[in-house]
Structures are given as structure tokens and as C-alpha cells.
Amino acid sequence: MARGDAPRDSYHLVGISFFILGLGTLLPWNFFITAIPYFQGRLAGANGTAGALSTNHTGPTDAFNFNNWVTLLSQLPLLLFTLLNSFLYQCIPEAVRILGSLLAMLLLFALTAALVKVDVSPGPFFSITMASAWFINSFCAVLQGSLFGQLGTMPSTYNTLFLSGQGLAGIFAALAMLTSMASGVDAQTSALGYFLTPCVGIVLSIVCYLSLPHLEFARYYLAKKPSQAPTQELETKAELLQCDEKNGVPSSPQKAALTSDVDPEKEPELEPAEPRDPGKPSVFVVFRKIWLTALCLVLVFTVTLSVFPAITAMVTSSTSPGKWSEFFNPICCFLLFNVMDWLGRSLTSYFLWPVENSRLLPLLVRLRFLFVPLFMLCHVPQRARLPILFPQAANFIIFMLLFAVSNGYLVSLTMCLAPRQVLAHEREVAGALMTFFLALGLSCGASLSFLFKALL
Fold this sequence. Notes:
Blueprint: H1 13-34, H2 36-44, H3 66-91, H4 94-114, H5 122-151, H6 156-167, H7 169-182, H8 187-211, H9 216-222, H10 229-234, H11 253-262, H12 283-307, H13 323-346, H14 360-367, H15 371-376, H16 393-417, H17 427-455
Subcellular location: Apical cell membrane; Basolateral cell membrane
Family: Belongs to the SLC29A/ENT transporter (TC 2.A.57) family.
Protein name: NBMPR-insensitive nucleoside transporter ei
């Protein structure tokens, strides 16, 4: 909570700024994977589908394994820069990291938009797109870590607003895709408008960041640098997955323990019975306490990234060609996943089940492996080995509902349980470890997607 002598956030401008900054950090990843049909059409070399956002009835051939490579090269930078954030914090000023990352992302996305109008052969186009995906997500990782370093000085309400913006980035990308497809303009203009949308979002993020020093409320808090900023910057994407809050007020005792870690004004009130100087927490000791929860987090993301979007983006409607066939994947794959994933994460605001040390959590996590064969047996036309056992769209929709809700809930649950398994002074180390295992799970899943794709 804000201190009594703190200035007011007039018109909630600081809160709106951090919400837009949160939205901007995850727009690139979501806009890349949502546009998979466009990229596959370009790589297929078919003149009729080049530049089109929608797929045809049978789905474009993924000759370059684009789904797999774009996922892998988007997640590896997160793992790399999760480990390098402390080094970057010491060597590069904060303003350079944030503004430099935003400007680089803007230029790279402008390049992606410009390529819509340029006739490039599939090979060079694939290389340029993969390089863009790598560098854009590298800058995103730096940007997220740097902004979380700033949020370490702010009241927890602003952390929540930032995370809300990140959580809505996927939904925003899916809606932008549907709007472009339904606009009625030609395929190239539609694709150009789609890729210019995140450019506008990044420009707004730059304006919001540059406006912060001119707002009294932001100056008051950002002038107070946290003593453990490098450690806080390690908690990059993990913060996105922690329990939601309503208006900055924890809705359960479990959430109070979490939000007190990010609210500098509450820190002195934590665990008054503990020694004042408990010493530097041991990474090995903390890992022994949370290893099972961390393993569950790795397995949840391994399952998710092994089939989404590498396999799920290939599923098409089995009905005759038409409007529903064109809109099937953007709606039933990307929009449905992001909405239900957000809903699953929100459920931890009301209850946490199963509790820590329960055998049910590993069981539920293992059960999610069933989604791998289920999606692989859906209506994916490009296959050579496995049969299609679930040709109906209703089957895919049911699987996606359960898949997305369970992903959001179990990820949020593990991130909520980990701080409860350690002492108060060990929570920062636990958060950093969980962030590392989160990135590890994403990378493992992206790597496994190549194997599952080959088995189709």
C-alpha cells in the first residue's frame, strides 16, 4: 500500500502506463505465434496464400517446421536472459535497457511488417523471420526484467496492473488477427495492418515510459531503488504467473504472503519472530524445499509448449471450406487458449487446491501428458503415421478448454505454493529458482515439439 505521505496517482496515469507497458512486453511473442498461418503461407511459396493471415481448408504445409522453430527461438532467449539479468543490471543503465529494448523491438517489428509487401523466396524469408523472432524475444526478456526491477519499488497494485497487461496480450493478439481477417481488404493489406498493430503498441509503451519521470507519483517511488534489484530482476516472467489480486488487495492469506514481497512498505512487517539477520539464504537449501513444486512447473510448461502452437496450430476444421474454416484456428486455438488460460490463472484468487505437500499436484501434472496424444490425433491433415481419431471440431474445442484452463491454474498454483514452502528471507531465492525452472520448462517443451511433429 502507498504511504500516507506519498502523492496521489492523478487520473491513474501511472497505473495506466504500467498496464500498457505490461501489454507491450508480451505482444511480440503473441503476435508471432498467432500469425503462424501467414508465415506458413509465405514459406509454402504459394502465390495465392502469400501474405494471407488465414489458412485454407487443408492447412498450409509446414515445410520449414516453422511452428517448432519459432517457439524454440522465442523461449531460449528467456532462459538465457533469465541467467544474464544480474550481469546486465550491473553493466547497462536501466534507461538504456528499457528504451533500447523498446526501440529495437519496434524496428524489428517494422521490418516484419515491411516484409509483407516484399517478394522474398521461402529460404531467406525463413532465416530473416527466425532471426527477428530470436532478437525480438531477447529484447523482450531484457525489457521484462528491467521493468520488474522498477516495479520492486512500487506498491503491489501497480505490479498487478502490469501483470494484467501481460495477461491480456495474447487475447489482444488473437482479436487483432480476427479483426484483420474480417476487415474485407486484400490479403496483403490485412497482414500489413496486423503487424503494424504491435508497432503502435510499442510506440505507446515508449510514450508511457518517457512520461513516468514527469509524473510526481512515479518520481516518488522510482527514486527509491530496492537494495536487491538484481535479484528482483531475475523474477521476470514468474511474476506474471503469480496469484491475481483485486484492486491491489490480497483476497486470501496465501496472497498476502506473496504481495508483501513486492511491496517495499510491507517488508518490515514480515515474520517478526524471525531473526533480524538470518544470513544469506542457501540456494541448495531452498531448492531442497521446493524441488517438487519446481519440477511440476517444468512439466506443466513442457507439455504445453510441446503441442502449443506447434501441433495445435496445424489442426483444421473438417467441414467444407468456408468462413468457419478460415476463422477456426484463430478462434479455437489462439483466442480460446488465451482466454481460458487467463481464467485458469484467475482461479487461484479464490482457492488454492491441492495444497503444498499434496500428492494430488504431481498426479494432476502427470495427467496433462494425455493432451499430447489427444491433440496429435485431432484433424491435422499433414500426417504420415498416426491416424485421425478426433476429426470433429467439438473434440478439439473440448481438449483446448481443458488444456488451457489446467495450464493457467497449475502454473499459477505452483507459483503461489513455492513461497509458502520457504522462510520469508528465502522467498527471493525461491522466486529466482522458480523463474529459472519456468524458462527451462518452456525450452524443454519447445524442443520436444520437434519430436511430436515428426511422429505425426
